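Hi support team,

I'm opening this ticket because the web form for multi-chain structure prediction keeps timing out on my end. I have pasted the exact lines I submitted so you can reproduce it. The total is 410 residues across two entries, so I didn't expect it to be a heavy job. Is there a limit I'm missing, or should I split the entries? Thanks in advance, R.K.
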Amino acid sequence: MEEKRNGEPKTAQETTGNTDTAPETVREKEGQTDKQSGGSLFEGIYDRLPDISVKSVDRFIVLCVIAFIAVILIGVLKANHVF
Amino acid sequence: MQKTFNLKKFISNNAIIILIILLALLTGLTTKNFFKLNNFKNLVVNVSPRFIIACGVSGCLITKGTDLSAGRAVGLAACLSAMLLQSLDYSARMLPWMPDIPWPVALVIVVVIMGCFGGINGVVVSSLKVPPFIATLGMQTIIYGLCSLITNNQPMGGYKSSYLKVASGSLGPIPYLMIFAVVVGVYFWFLYNKTRHGKYMYAIGGNESAAQVAGVNVKASLIRIYVLAGCMYALAGFLVGAKAGGASTATGNGYELEAIAACTIGGVSANGGVGRVGGILIGVLVFEILKICLQFLGVDPAYTYIAQGLVIVIAVALDLRKYLQKK
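Hello R.K., no limit was hit. The queue was backed up. Here is the completed structure from your submission:
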C-alpha cells in the first residue's frame, strides 16, 4: 500500500514531469513556427497593437480625411495667390 | 434574401476612391484640358510602369513580406538597359565593344539579371529567415552601390531609336506601355487566381505554419515570388528608361514606397493573405490621378507629398478597421 502510495506520488510526479515537458514541447513548436515564419516585422502587426475600438479608428480616419481636404484646399489657395 | 445596401460600409470600403473621384471632378470642372484624350494618354503612360512594379511587390506583401529594393532595382534595370541599348554612333557609349543588339534581347538579359537579385532576396528571406524588411533594405543599398559602380555616377542617354519607340510608340491609339501593363496584369490575375502558385501564396500569407503543414513548399514559393518581383522590376526599369530617354543612379528612387502604398490602397492587407490585381490597379490609379489633379490645380509639389502621405495613412487605417470589424 505504501509502495503504491509511494508509487502514486511518483506517478503524479511523472505525470507532472510529463506535463512540464508538454508545455515545453508546445513552446518548442511555437519557436519553430516563429522561425518558419521568417519573422517579418509586419507579421501580425495588427495583433500586436493595443486594444483599439472601431470608433476610435473611425475618428482617426475622419481626422485624416479632414487633413487631406485641408492640405489640398491650402495648396490650391496658395497656387491662386489667395494667401 | 435581399442584401440591403449599407451606405456607411460602402463609404468606408471605398473612401479613398470616392475622395479621388471628387477631386478629379473638381479638377475637370475648374481647369481646361483635364478630361482630354492627351491627358488620359499621359495618365496611362505614367500608370503602366508603376502598375508593373506594384504587381511585383504585391506577391511579397501578400505573403506578409515587403520589398524595399524595388525602386533601386528599377533604377539598376534602367541603367543596364541603357548600357545595352545606346546608339552605336553615340560618343559617350558606356560599352563601346557592345555590338548592336535588338531590344527584346536586351530586355531578356536585364530580366535575367534582376531575377537573380530577386532570387537572392527570396533565399535570404526564406532560407536564412531574415525579416524581409531588413533583407530587402540591405539589398536596396547594395543595388544602389552596384548601380553607382557600373555607371560611374554618370547619367546615360543616346539610346537607339528602336528602344525609345517602345515607350513613345503605340498600336493605333493604344500606347505600347499600356500593352505591356495589360499583359502583365492579365498574367498576374491568372497566376493569383488560377494557378497552384497563387493558392500557395495566399495560403502562406494567411497562415504560413498551416500552409507548411498542408504540404506547401514555403521556401520554394517565397523564392519564386521574389524572383518574379525582380523580373517585374526589370521590365518596369526597361520601360522607365525608354520613357525618360535616359537613366541614372537616381532613377527609380522612391518607387517602392509608391508601389507599396498603391497596393495598400488597392486592398492588399498589411496583415497578409489578401490582395487582388484589380485592387492594385485601382491603387496605382488613385496615386497617379491625385498627382495629375494637383498638377493641374497648380499645387506646389510639397503639398502633393503631404496629400499622398495622408492617403497612405487613410488606406492603412481602413485596412485596420476591416480587420477589427472581422475580429
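A quick check on our side: Residues 20 and 33 of chain A are 20 Å apart (CA to CA). Let us know if the file doesn't open in your viewer.
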